[in-house]
UniProtKB/TrEMBL annotation:
Family: Belongs to the bZIP family. CNC subfamily.
Segments of skewed composition (Low complexity): 308-352
GO molecular function annotations of the record: cholesterol binding; DNA-binding transcription activator activity, RNA polymerase II-specific; identical protein binding; promoter-specific chromatin binding; protein domain specific binding; protein-containing complex binding; RNA polymerase II cis-regulatory region sequence-specific DNA binding
Protein name as it appears in the record: Endoplasmic reticulum membrane sensor NFE2L1
DNA sequence: CAGCTATGTCATAGT
DNA sequence: GTACTATGACATAGC
């Protein structure tokens, strides 16, 4: 139902107050601007320039007894009511903030699918209020709305709409799209009711829907509009069968105590339905979601990160900063490249390394007595993933405080403290070159070095273990640094995604606000049109007994409420069936 | 002393 | 097959 209403408005180039940019998915407001607008609340609604352009009048034919509407010619036309769509159009123009350049690129029928059709307690609803505009959306529908809206955006991107102005103003009067404005012949509706002047009078920017001016319009004067004529043959089925406007605009259950006339006694048509509180509600809800994500999920993520492998997300806790991330890779490559550049000979390693740690089982007690050995700290330095720049100058510091020297004298302990276990082992085994060389020399040079000395099997085994462990130590350092970098990058990604999500939520709020504005304007239009309808006695129609109905082809019908409710129920069933 | 971090080491898979 | 790298898992020192 909502769909067709909007569809009609759409066809008639009725700008509902939302500019194209509102629906342009690619249109991204700056976040701070969005925030500001969210605070501003109501915006730009009262500066809409009306446009005086040619408009089409439409006639409505409704069978007052049966509720059926049809375009049949009524002799004499006495039971017809001239209902000027011009009123509608001008009203809409008057409420259009975007003027002639406003385009509605999305298929409005699809757009309205994003509008939830919600019902409201009858007592809360004005009889004239359209369900389109009623109530607050269920929060559970919001996501669906959003998805729908997104799909609209996609459609919009594909579909360059014909200017709705063309549709509206270029349609010939006999165009079925534009003239299905009919009343049933039996309907006792005064055909002389003309809302043309009234509409003109009500089209000022700050028009009042029920101003005394408007209400005092001559009702029985000769119409300046074409009297209701039977619309062309397409009307009966196409206009009636497609959409029940009453269901669209009226709640299924009418408040029986509500005004029976659509006159000035109508309460505030927008009631509490359109107040900013609704938007605030949505905004708050979205923001709550966002907040929830930020606080709960982010902390959750942080928890996970923090608990994983004992690594902290916080970069300040990381021994390596991000800026040093490239250093690790470059450190390994530079060290290897510099080492390989000096490679001059090639040796084939004799025998497998054999990761037996037997050599390691050399008791340190055997080593502890070894003193006086001064390793060449400055010649070869191990890699440091903490600071690659110190690659070639760091002494062995990794086990400072690890006292593996046992019963050494304090002086010896001081110098020996900086030796690794492998250093001690090497010293104990009288290895004639430094562990740096053992670890960092390219394999060719390493083998060449080994060949220069007569080494026992135990020595060779220890040397290979030292080389293996040394290389693995560097590898472990690099590995850990990479892991930290990966975690930091993931953390950044999470933050980026959180920002994206927050931005999308803000945009969603904007879209929803636009939708609400559109619904508000549609509702106003409905009330205005209905409230100006007069029967043959010049009396307004009771919203509890009659309703307007839009057909899919653009026609507007005045039908009895009972029929409207029937069709409304029928329309409600359809989507459910479709879902099945 | 428990918990955490940093680091070394081993085993293993992959290059 | 060797040499090397990457990485998970474990051990240990130190805070």
């Amino acid at each position: 139902q909502d769909i067709d209403l909007i569809d009609i408005l759409w066809r008639q180039d009725i700008d509902l107050g939302a500019g194209r940019e509102i629906f342009d998915y690619s249109h991204r407001q700056k976040e701070q601007d969005v925030d500001k607008e969210l605070q501003d609340g109501v915006e730009q609604e009262d500066t809409w320039p009306g446009e005086g352009e040619e408009v089409l009048a439409r006639n409505l034919l409704v069978d007052g007894e049966t509720g059926e509407s049809f375009p049949a010619q009524v002799p004499g036309g006495e039971n017809q009511t001239a209902l000027s769509l011009e009123l509608c159009l001008r009203l809409l123009e008057a409420t259009c903030p975007f003027g002639e350049n406003a385009e509605f690129p999305a298929d409005i029928s699809s757009l309205t699918e994003a509008v939830p059709s919600e019902s409201e307690p009858p007592g809360l609803q004005n009889n004239l209020l359209s369900p389109l505009l009623t109530g607050t959306e269920s929060p559970f529908d919001l996501e669906q709305q959003w998805q729908d809206l997104m799909s609209i955006m996609e459609m919009q991107a594909m579909e360059v709409n014909t200017s709705t102005n063309e549709i509206l103003y270029n349609n010939p009067p006999g165009d079925p799209l534009s003239t299905n404005y009919s009343l049933a012949p039996n309907t006792p509706i005064n055909q002389n009711v003309s809302l043309h002047q009234a509409s003109l009078g009500g089209c000022s920017q700050d028009f009042s829907l029920f101003s005394p001016e408007v209400e005092s319009l001559p009702v029985a004067s000769s119409s300046t509009l074409p009297p209701l004529v039977p619309s062309n043959s397409t009307s009966l089925n196409s206009t009636f069968g497609s959409t029940n406007l009453s269901g669209l605009f009226f709640p299924p259950q009418l408040n029986g105590t509500a005004n029976d006339t659509a006159g000035p006694e109508l309460p505030d048509p927008l009631g509490g339905l359109l107040d900013e509180a609704m938007l605030d509600e949505i905004s708050l809800m979205d923001l709550a979601i966002e907040e929830g994500f930020n606080s709960v999920q982010a902390s959750q993520l942080k928890e996970e990160f923090d608990s994983d492998s004992g690594l902290s997300l916080d970069s300040s806790h990381s021994p390596s900063s991000l800026s040093s991330s490239e250093g690790s890779s470059s450190s390994s490559s530079s060290s290897s490249s510099s080492a390989s550049s000096s490679a001059s000979s090639s040796f084939s390693e004799e025998g497998a390394v054999g990761y037996s740690s037997d050599s390691e089982t050399l008791d340190l007690e055997e080593v502890e007595g070894a003193v006086g050995y001064q390793p060449e700290y400055s010649k070869f330095c191990r890699m440091s993933y903490q600071d690659p720049s110190q690659l070639s100058c760091l002494p062995y510091l990794e086990h400072v405080g690890h006292n593996h020297t046992y019963n050494m004298a304090p002086s010896a302990l001081d110098s020996d403290k900086q030796m690794s276990r492998d250093e001690h082992r090497a010293r104990a085994m009288k290895i004639p070159f430094t562990n740096d060389k053992i670890i960092n020399l390219p394999v060719e040079e390493f083998n060449e070095l080994l060949s220069k000395y007569q080494l026992s099997e135990a020595q060779l085994s220890l040397i290979r273990d030292i080389r293996r462990r040394g290389k693995n130590k560097m590898a472990a350092q690099n590995c850990r640094k990479r892991k930290l970098d990966t975690i930091l990058n993931l953390k950044r990604d999470v933050e980026d995604l959180q920002r994206d999500k927050a931005r999308l939520l803000r945009e969603k709020v904007e879209f929803l606000r636009s939708l609400r504005q559109m619904k508000q304007k549609v509702q106003s239009l409905y009330q205005e049109v209905f409230g100006r309808l007069r029967d043959e006695n010049g009396q307004p129609y009771s919203p509890s007994q009659y309703a307007l109905q839009y057909a899919g082809d653009g026609s507007v019908l005045l039908i009895p409420r009972t029929l409207a409710d029937q069709q409304a129920r029928r329309q409600e069933r359809k989507p459910k069936d479709r879902r099945k």
